[in-house]
Amino acid sequence: MKKAFKAAVLGLALLVGTAHAIELADAKSQGWLGEQRDGYLGLVRSDAPPAVRQLLDQVNRQRTAQFEQIATRNGISVNDAAAVFAREALQRTQPGNYIQGQGGWVKK
Fold first, then answer.
1. For the whole model, what pTM was predicted?
2. Rounded Cα distance, 61 and 55, in Å
3. pLDDT tens digits along 25-71
4. In this structure, which of 29, 66, 93, 102 has its CB flanked by the most CB atoms within 10 Å?
5. Mind listing the pLDDT tens digit for each residue in 82-99?
6. For the chain, how many structural domains are there in total?
7. Beta strands 41-43 and 98-101, pairing class
8. Is the dihedral of CA 27, 89, 107, 99 positive or negative?
9. In terms of DSSP H, where are the helices of the chain?
């Protein structure tokens, strides 16, 4: 993998992680949101309040825009850029937060 590409993906992780650090961390720690295998956030619990659902949409829109930029710069597909980010995000997920497993949501 190109170093520039990996650096861009890691930069995205930092950007997305800090843009909504308090709200996103809270939503994850309360079990409302989790990291999906496709690079996007997912709704873990259907009882999440509207503010959490808005945060989910906002972060996923930002991720899409970043995946598109990374893909264009590196001559890869958006899905490939998202897949690299997903692997990084799943590894960085805090213990006790949710990640998408093969059969559904699991606590890390």
1. 0.78
2. 10
3. 999 999 999 999 999 999 999 999 999 999 999 999 999 999 999 99
4. 66
5. 999 999 999 999 999 999
6. 1
7. unpaired
8. positive
9. 3-19, 21-29, 50-74, 78-92
- The Cα 106–Cα 9 span in angstroms is 24
Give the max Cα distance, the chain. Answer: 41
Q: Which amino acid is at 94?
A: Q
- At residue 56, what is the residue type? L
Amino acid letter at 68? E
CB 105 within 8 A of CB 98: yes
DSSP code at position 43: E
95 φ, ψ to 5°? -55, 140
Residue 101 tokens read as: 């497993």
Distance CA(39)–CA(42), nearest Å, equals 9
